[in-house]
Amino acid sequence: MGGMATAERRAQPARVDATRNRERIIAAAREAFVEHGPTVPLDAIAHRAGVGNATLYRHFADRHELIHVVASYSLARITEQAESALAEETDAFEALRRFVHRAADERVGALCSLLYEGFDKNDPHVIDARVRMEAVVTELMDNAREAGQLRSDVGIGDLMVAITQLTRPIAGTACAHVERFMHRHLQLLLDGMRAPARSELCGTAATFEDFETT
Amino acid sequence: MGGMATAERRAQPARVDATRNRERIIAAAREAFVEHGPTVPLDAIAHRAGVGNATLYRHFADRHELIHVVASYSLARITEQAESALAEETDAFEALRRFVHRAADERVGALCSLLYEGFDKNDPHVIDARVRMEAVVTELMDNAREAGQLRSDVGIGDLMVAITQLTRPIAGTACAHVERFMHRHLQLLLDGMRAPARSELCGTAATFEDFETT
DNA sequence: CAGGAAACGGGGAGAAGATCTCCGTTTCGT
DNA sequence: ACGAAACGGAGATCTTCTCCCCGTTTCCTG
């Protein structure tokens, strides 16, 4: 039932204000998910988008569908950032560094909604997008590792989880502007990931499977 | 009105089960605040503590008072950890490292409740505890910096905010056990903070004043 | 530029969940 | 063993979120 709205919409050319509002809602939802988590009130998203709540419900059947769309968007944009960094940067670690900071700007934290309780983790499109992203980022890391620039004991899970955590708004504060600090913290993390390793890491890197079992 | 319950309690020696339950509630609240933020349902805290909800309301007039107590507890314990690391470790950076990991174990993330909207930031006791902690941690960092082990462009705000962020539960997941990864991430961060600096940091470190203005 | 269809926004009903109290029962201290 | 204090569960009240209704506005087409 959820996917119908989207399908019907493509059938006939939508009005320009409709598509514009749709984009606004998605952008607002991405921000809101990052700031308050996947359970943020839908009315709050509508308000942030500058539209009435009915408009949101007209475009998206329920929270489930909205999360699905936002997650797909974010996955795609993160992947794009990784691909362009991979293609355009000559230095392997610099490519990784660029990706990390761009991913932060793209609000990679919105992907936390992927882990929402009611989210369909088995959707083919999502799986495909996730695998693609995983592949590109892994390539970024492998390149840096083979170039002797990245320590060998860090995995993709370390990177993605740490980015997500460091780019979230500080808990309890409405708008304490993590943007001011997160790039510093990311830079410190990256420096810590440089080879040669300055210490030994305990445990193992996170994998996507670690989050499957809710 | 909030502080009365605590004051009255100290007047006469409380029953052992009462004090025991009080401790349990505080511990449960600390965990719950870290996991779900300062707005977690009070009934959920009571349930987690293994007591009836009425018992919670008997000990703490409202959420405000509970947060106050938990924050004070956490501040004190973090400070203790910093002090013992300072006193017992000979190597300056090792002292800092030890503090960071212990602070993570002590759920420093509970301090996010300090930033809760209705929290009284001007309470003299809280200010005093915060200043004390700030002083000890600053000393830890200064020592490491003077020993040439800590890069000079990181501040206490970088450390505290990053710890808080990295030790929070991953958004959207009920219990994805950050414990498994957070020590890895903290270690990477610490490695990145080691001297000599491997890159240049942008911006400036966070200060407590940055969070005053809500 | 005018007619009609589609989209919009605000308000509010209904449902879900959180807060906090009442009161019969249990546990502690003397 | 007795009285006082604390406990726990159930439920009344209040808040908050969801989602629909319907009068109004905006956009496309001829």
What structural keywords apply?
2 domains, elongated, Arc Repressor Mutant, subunit A, DNA-binding, mainly alpha, disordered N terminus, 0% strand, homodimer, Tetracycline Repressor, domain 2, 214 residues, 9 helices
Give the SSE layout.
The structure is a homodimer of 214-residue chains.
Chain A: H1 4-11, H2 16-36, H3 42-49, H4 53-59, H5 63-88, H6 92-105, H7 124-146, H8 156-166, H9 179-193
Chain A binds a DNA duplex (30 and 30 nucleotides) through residues 14-18, 21, 41-44, 46, 51-55, 57-58, 62-63.
Overview of this protein structure:
The structure is a homodimer of 214-residue chains. Chain A is mainly α. Chain A has two domains: 4-63, Homeodomain-like (Arc Repressor Mutant, subunit A), CATH 1.10.10; 74-211, Tetracycline Repressor, domain 2 (Orthogonal Bundle), CATH 1.10.357. The first copy, chain A, has helices at 4-11, 16-36, 42-49, 53-59, 63-88, 92-105, 124-146, 156-166, 179-193. In chain A, α2 (16-36) crosses α5 (63-88) and α6 (92-105) runs antiparallel to α9. The relative contact order of chain A is 0.11. The first copy, chain A, binds a DNA duplex (30 and 30 nucleotides) through residues 14-18, 21, 41-44, 46, 51-55, 57-58, 62-63.
